[in-house]
Amino acid sequence: MIESPRTEEPAFRFARQCDISLPLVFIDGITRCGKSALSKVVPSLTRMEHIQFAEELELIVSGLSLGGLRKDYAAAFLRSHLNQKSYNLHISRNVNFRPGDQTAVINYRNPEIYQERLTLEEGPENVERCRASDHYLPMQTHDLMANISLIQDLEINFRILSLWRNPVENIYSWWSRGWGVRFNNRDSTNFSLLIEDAEGNAYPWYVAGYHRQTLGMNAPEKCIAVACDMIERCIAGYRLKAEKDRTLLLFFEDICIDPDREVGRICDFLNVEKTEFTAPALRDARLPREIIQADLDMKIAAFREAVRPDIFDRLMQFQHAYLDTRYGLA
């Protein structure tokens, strides 16, 4: 077989298909900021499909941010992927029926919809169903605000609910869930993209550039260093890059104290309404919930005991900035 000659620059670009995908609602924030609670509530609103994760999108973003992907390929891939996801959703193909999973359709406000779709024919009629739908597809995502300019450049039809939380509570949850250890191993149930250095040490992709600095840190120190860096990047992403008309800032403590008001803000932002399923969804998410100062004090004391003074001081600076002005965002 005669191989075609290869050149440095291909003589083509990847092309996007016509768009038949549902508009997306990203429920976004750093890990353990309260997205799971909010993801129980948003699908209870009108015009919402059931909640899904966005692994493919997150892998594309990580590849773009590190220079490992061409932008035209990323845009073409996502258009094809989201078209297929919308097409399959309208005939209940590849939907999740595991009752214990957050993304299971049995946990949707009206799971019968997906049972009924099983009887629908695929083909041109289903394409028209996709085009005619006025529904949103809510997706739980991680850290998109840090790379929001990349998302916007991919010409995706989306709105983003950007969720923030007291960094002490947020980062303590990282520590207690073992993320300080899982950062530097190859745990096959940690589905984040990994990078490695010349010695074969593994790191999550988002610490590229300062990854080796984390090697000398203990578990809670890594959690603080990495989370604070990601928070800084998300703040900069919102301030400098985010299209504000597509972004709604939400703060977990506000949702805990007055969830009805915050859900109302979400409804206004997305032009949707509460349903009879919203109140049960709030109860299932344990909202409202009390914020106990003694618990916060205990977590601060645990960090003070476990980490170096300079790293502890950085955490306290972030907490003061959050409590005083919500990082200057609100």
Automatic annotation (TrEMBL):
InterPro entries: P-loop_NTPase, Sulfotransferase_dom. Gene3D superfamilies: P-loop containing nucleotide triphosphate hydrolases. Residues 73-273 form the Sulfotransferase domain. Keywords: Transferase. One of its GO terms (molecular function) is sulfotransferase activity. Pfam families: Sulfotransfer_1. This is Sulfotransferase domain-containing protein.
